[in-house]
Amino acid sequence: MADSILHIKNAGKSRGAMRVLEGVSLNAEPGQRIALLGHNGAGKSTLMKAVLGLTTLDDGRITVDGARPGSAHARTVTAYLPEAVAFHKSLTGREQLTLFARLAGSDMAQVAGYLDRVGIADAADRRIGTYSKGMRQRLGLAQVLLGRPKLALLDEPTSGLDPISRHELYAIIDEMAAHGTAVVIASHTLTEVEARTDRIAILRDGRLVADDTLDNLTLRAGLPTRLRVRAHGDAAARIADETGGTRVNGVSVDLLCTPDRKMAELRRLSAMGEAVADIEMHPPRLEDLYRHYSKGDSQ
Amino acid sequence: MIRRILAIARIEAIITRRNRWLLMATVIMVLFAVALTLAGSAPTGTLGVNMLTVSVASMTTLSVYLAPLLALMMAFDSIAGEAERGGLGLLLSYPVSRAEILLGKFLAHIAALAFAMVIGFGTAGALAALSGGADAASLAALLRLILTSILLGAAFLSLGYMLSALAGSATGAAGLSAGLWLVFVVLYDLGLLGAVVFDAGGWFTQKVFPWMMAANPADAFRLWNIAASDGVAMATGLAGAASALPIWVAPVSLLLWPVLGLLLARRFFGRLEP
Ligand SMILES: Nc1ncnc2c1ncn2[C@@H]1O[C@H](COP(=O)(O)OP(=O)(O)O)[C@@H](O)[C@H]1O
Ligand SMILES: [Mg+2]
């Protein structure tokens, strides 16, 4: 993995008696978008802080573009969007971004462009104290774009965003990835948009329980497809009886079947003729996968 | 390095101006300095010194209380508050060191304090000089008062940063700062006074007491101003302690404190996990 921007090997950390990270290994290559999923307290933020050098590990090793976390080089190539961005109220968006640009040593002329890119150009000279949560989040995103980082760590970037803003956020993430930035997005909520990542890593109680593409995770989980069969008239009881499914809201029956049994079930249902009015198919969704891997069903 | 320190200082200067800190500190300084100067104008004739001398003497006493207070009020929130708001982690994700952050804030805050001191003491001094006369010595005393007040402010700014890094929360830092002020500015002197009274002019009073006074930045400030100016010494009646020490002790103490404070602040800041 010589071309990895981020290289995490066996990361382990204790806080008091609690093990918040244990044997976490993860790599990020240029241009990859990685969703880091996990329930609250799973260790996502801690892992990000370790990558930033804000907190130290007890075990394992992290390199960022070959450098130690927190070193000048690592900080230069890394951008970070913290979980709760609270900028200073009395500064304007432009002043705040200008500070970051100065610290990053990037071109001052770009500041206005980035404010425009995230859609807060009109509010650039207003105090941050007057911004909405979404606007502050956008300002946070603008500072992520500064200086074309090689690695971007976004901690719960979608929290507090309306669906449209969320869409724009993912467009910006795609753009960064297209420019070769490796983007790690931590989240505890799932939306269909989060499937627009190249890889999904799932943390559970400080351990990495999954790290693969969505397709492979689906395959490996072997989760059943749900068939919802709507019955004609009072045929629901008979269908439930013959197929072994469970009845829902009086007229429908739910059947669970593994991917390889699906066609056989469909044939059996169509053989029942008039009794079946309609069939809806629900393949496992990201949410089911997430539940599968993060609740420990895999063991 | 200088570029990053200045970038931080610039932002802090904007914040100090916008949240009206600069205005407030300046108004407080002017009000107190002018009020003291006007109140102190009565005994001029009896002491046989000009009014600016008396004014500087009373402003010296004022500054002992006010300079540390203003400095601590500016400093206490600067690290703990930023950590609480989550801004510190973001700031430290940039290639800027903790020392640079500290120095940048220090630069902005000391500039604000200096501004308030110059305007406050300057106004009062000018008022005194115009109404009751001044001479070269009293003008020098005024200048010394302003410079040493800035140094005293610097000492307590740095100690304020130290507490801010130590406390972990802005509220905690505020409490610690109030405690520090009370100890250095009030209790320390009371303790020394008690010891001197108990000792009744013995070995402690002669040999130890002056050095212990010089070790406290607030007292070093007083000693420096007194030792350098006969007029001020006469007016404050602290000449005894001042004359027992070599002339360089108080200035060295007052110059070392900001450095020591900043080093301690950097140390505790380093332990703070954002
Ligand atoms: N500063 C801290 N001190 C003590 N425990 C902490 C601290 N930060 C996080 N933790 C604990 O570490 C665990 C992981 O937290 P975190 O990384 O914030 O999880 P996530 O971001 O996945 O919600 C949690 O149990 C949390 O309580
Ligand atoms: Mg978190």
Automatic annotation (TrEMBL), chain A:
Residues making up the signal peptide according to the UniProt record: none
List the PROSITE patterns hit by this protein, alphabetically: ABC_TRANSPORTER_1, ABC_TRANSPORTER_2
Instruction: Identify the keywords attached in UniProt to this record, alphabetized.
Output: ATP-binding, Nucleotide-binding, Transport
Any Pfam family from its record, for instance, is ABC_tran
Q: Name one GO molecular function term.
A: ATP binding
- Which superkingdom heads the taxonomic lineage of this protein's source? Bacteria
Where does the record place the ABC transporter domain?
6-230
Asked if the Swiss-Prot or TrEMBL record annotates the protein with the keyword Protein biosynthesis, the reply is no
Which PANTHER family does UniProt cross-reference here?
ABC TRANSPORTER ATP-BINDING PROTEIN ALBC-RELATED (PTHR42939)
User: What protein am I looking at?
Assistant: ABC transporter ATP-binding protein
Q: Which organism is it from?
A: Sedimentitalea arenosa
